[in-house]
Design a protein that fits this description.
quinolinate synthetase A activity; metal-binding; EC 2.5.1.72; Rossmann fold; alpha/beta; 44% helix; pyridine nucleotide biosynthesis; 4Fe-4S; 303 residues
């Protein structure tokens, strides 16, 4: 890490009275300058509850938009303006409206990895960690779930009496891992514990010793008495795993699990963003209010 650049960022942060938030999948240099590191929704809640009025959100666009939905009065900056989410882009507003017409009795449940426009016509949002509890509390028998068919399939397995209509979306990082990638590591390291994100496909999930969100994977590995872990999610999480567990070993399957968009953010981006107050997130107020309702329902139904 460039110490001079880091010092400039910290000085600018103080001058702007800003907070820097970083997702677990960001590069280590970004995680190290952040005031908080976490998953997308928890970071949005931090943004909502903090006293700072300027939030530098080091993640991808839908995450910064979620923070703006919850905190419209604050200035939300996205350091890498072109950091998007291919899975979120797979769900189009107009196509969802058509699907809703075909299933008028279904509740629309959108993964937080979705656009503001999609959230605005959803009944509730979910995270990978809260989805099961929310579906349990949702008093409907038919559910449109989008955009991730893999997370949707994982949830549906737990509710055989509910009818799910899945969007044909997926995470390009998680879906590229095959069962063979996992089995190779299990053969190589006999006592390895397999920790899998539910965005992975069903054949990979079946090989898991534990399935959970990014935060849950970190918690499980930290509390486990085992020493060897196969981490089947975006490899940026390894930085936090090693910080919390310096004596444990962490491995990634296949050729690696890297989200190109999550790795677009650099220290230079953060510095220039704070210097010029650029790439501010703006959302139409009418759409924001509708999207807020879906996020607010997530909070209520996850209790």
């Amino acid at each position: 890490m460039s110490k001079a650049l880091k010092d400039k960022i910290l000085q600018l942060k103080k001058e702007r009275q800003a907070i820097i938030l970083a997702h677990y999948y960001q590069i280590p240099e970004i995680q190290e300058i952040a005031d908080a590191v976490g998953d997308s929704y928890n970071l949005s809640k931090i943004a909502q509850g903090c006293s700072e009025q300027v939030v530098m959100f080091c993640g991808v666009r839908f995450m910064a938009e979620s923070a703006k939905i919850l905190s419209p009065e604050k200035t939300i900056l996205l350091p890498a303006a072109n950091a998007g989410c291919p899975m979120a882009d797979m769900a189009a507003y107009e196509d969802l409206l058509e699907l809703q017409k075909e299933h008028p009795n279904a509740a629309t449940v959108s993964y937080i990895n979705s656009s503001t426009e999609v959230k605005a016509i959803s009944d509730v949002c979910v995270t990978s960690s809260s989805a099961t509890k929310i579906i349990e509390n949702l008093n409907v028998d038919e559910i449109i779930f989008l955009p991730d068919k893999n997370l949707g399939g994982y949830i549906a397995e737990q509710f055989p009496n509910k009818k799910f209509i899945f969007w044909n979306g997926y995470c390009v990082v998680h879906s590229r891992i095959s069962p063979e990638d996992v089995l190779k590591m299990k053969d190589k390291i006999k006592d390895i514990v397999v920790l899998v994100h539910p965005e992975c496909e069903a054949p990979v999930r079946k090989l898991a010793d534990f399935i959970g969100s990014t935060g849950e994977i970190i918690k499980h590995a930290t509390e486990s008495s085992s020493n060897n872990f196969l981490i089947v999610t975006e490899e940026g999480v390894i930085h936090q795993l090693k910080k919390h567990n310096p004596d444990k070993n962490f491995y990634i399957p296949g050729e690696g699990m890297t989200c190109v968009n999550m790795k677009k953010t650099t220290l230079k981006n953060v510095y220039e963003g704070l210097l010029n107050m650029q790439h501010q997130i703006e959302i139409d107020e009418e759409i924001r209010i509708k999207a807020y309702n879906a996020l607010n329902n997530m909070h209520k139904l996850s209790r």
